[in-house]
Amino acid sequence: MSQLQGPDYPQPLAPPAADTVCLLHPLKAQNLDIKRIEAKYEEERAKRLRSDGIAQFQSAKGSFSRFKDDIGRVPITRESVTRETKTLIVGGGFGGVITAVKLKEQGIHDFVMLDKASGFGGTWYWNQYPGVYCDVESYVYLPFLEETGYLPTTRFASGPEILEHIGRVVEKWDLASNAYLQTQITSMLWDGKISRWHIHTNRSDHFIAQFVVMATGTLHEPQLPGIPGIDEFERPLFHLGRWDYSVTGGDSKGDMTKLANKTVGIIGTGASGVSVIPMLAESSGKLLVFQRTPATVAFRENWKTDHDLLSNLKPGWQRDQMDTLASVLEGSMSDVEVTALEGLDVLAIRGLFQEAKKAGVEVKPEEIPELMKLANIRLMERLRKLVDETVEDKSTAEKLKPWYSFMCKRPVFNNDYLATFNRPNVKLIDTDGKGVSYLTKRGVMANGQEHEVDVLVLATGFEFYLASDYEHRTGIKIVGSSGKTLDDEWREDGPKTLFGIHLRGFPNLFNVGAVQSGVGVTWTHTTYVAGEHIAEVIASVLKKGRFEVIEPTEDAAADWGNQIKEGGEMKINFHRTCTPSYYNAEGKPEQYSARWGTYPKGMTEWTRILKDWREEGNMKGIEKQ
């Protein structure tokens, strides 16, 4: 069991048991019509396909820039800065903070951190809407628990607790003294004559750095629906990622008293929308939920942490938890049990393998893909049954059922969402895959009818598309050694990296991100591994002193890209069958090179490769100057 598991923990939606007959014919035994289910998947997918793909959304730029304003911030006044530094870190979220700590652990204190926000936290700084919480176990998500001596109060931490803990880390390592906040980088230019990066900001700052770490993160740039009328809407309107408590009252715990006698509309039922909808339902006079595609929703068990456990935990327990979780969810058929929600699909297939082993049934390698597909369908059938068991109105229940494969959209874990539709003040307005048509001065036009609202919330997601232009997403123009921008270099054939960290054509530039990197259940694991690697490499270069510029060779980047492409093509093939979402570029996964994918063999192998590479000591695949 997880070392931090509650004593009476019932695994929510645990993998179903499988006997020998069910293992060999798992769906036939349950009288499930596979062809009918797959036909339904395709029918629902086709309803939602659009020729414009991700272009259906618009950015919070120009006349819409107000939707990404830092609401309620206190302006920081300072003079422009011109200074040299060994390392510059872009971003004050998990990636930036973890890398900064790892640099200090290597004895490197000459670095600066830049972030456009008014505080540290990245995604958690920007997303402070009611009900915000992490859907990954806090014991493996919150960084540096051992080092700070802190244990989260519950299994799944709330947004405020996460933000508070980031502040704890910042204070312990005195990162604020290295930071310039409310500072947006506008350009980065490599100067081959002096082997340094020139970094310019919107405050007329000029930093000169030997190394740059890009930790710009995701899920913080609001994405707006590309529908007419946003500018004409006359009532309070804001994006969920920039929650306006001056309109709603209350705080992240709810109690939005200003909504008591009002009709509130919310567009979007993705992960963030699912979190906030129950809170809005409790506070609003009436709540209208506009849905294009139902979410995949499961229950979660959120116990309080037994803080006496801290004294019994062995040193290194948090990293061990991360490694174990990654190993199990990447297909390890060990007997180790973990409490992992996003791994329901993997745990379902793992359950079948375990039962096969007990029954003495051998599963042949060629049978695994079909078995995985069947396990996926069984899991989704159970989730659709959960809707029937929870939602009282049968018509509403049908509209809330997700008809697509597990992991086509981000799964959501919330105990209150489905039951919210039993409340008399909540109405689901399902658009049958079409989405809302436009906004009027006073409401939302959907299904040919105007729905008047007093307040409208956009839960329409964030600019997450990894393959979209970097400058567009971040506002930073990066020019490498060839004079080309990062976007130009990557546009045709995709990213050119080694390990997803070192960038070909961009010397001394490191990336902490998902592209071509190892990615697992918890983003913290990726940033730990990447941050350690970057800090050790920088320390090695500074210590050796024989060279000061490093960049992956063309062959090394090509070889790594080919490994990514292999797995990326498999992922693209899967996502071709999926309903549109940010996972598949809104139904157009093939428009991007397969080299935009993540490392296909998972976190465990990626971690091992990086560790072995550093231990070899010769920086294989790296050009040195």
From TrEMBL:
What's the domain of life for this entry? Eukaryota
Q: Which Pfam families match?
A: Pyr_redox_3
Sorted keywords for this record are: FAD, Flavoprotein, Monooxygenase, NADP, Oxidoreductase
MF terms per GO, please? Answer: monooxygenase activity
Q: InterPro entries given for it?
A: FAD-binding_Monooxygenases, FAD/NAD-bd_sf
Q: Which SUPFAM superfamilies match?
A: FAD/NAD(P)-binding domain
Q: Which cofactors?
A: FAD
Instruction: List the PANTHER family hit by this protein, alphabetically.
Output: BLR3857 PROTEIN, L-ORNITHINE N(5)-MONOOXYGENASE-RELATED
- Report the sequence similarity comment from the record: Belongs to the FAD-binding monooxygenase family.
Q: What is this protein called?
A: FAD/NAD(P)-binding domain-containing protein
Q: What is the lineage of its organism?
A: Eukaryota, Fungi, Dikarya, Ascomycota, Pezizomycotina
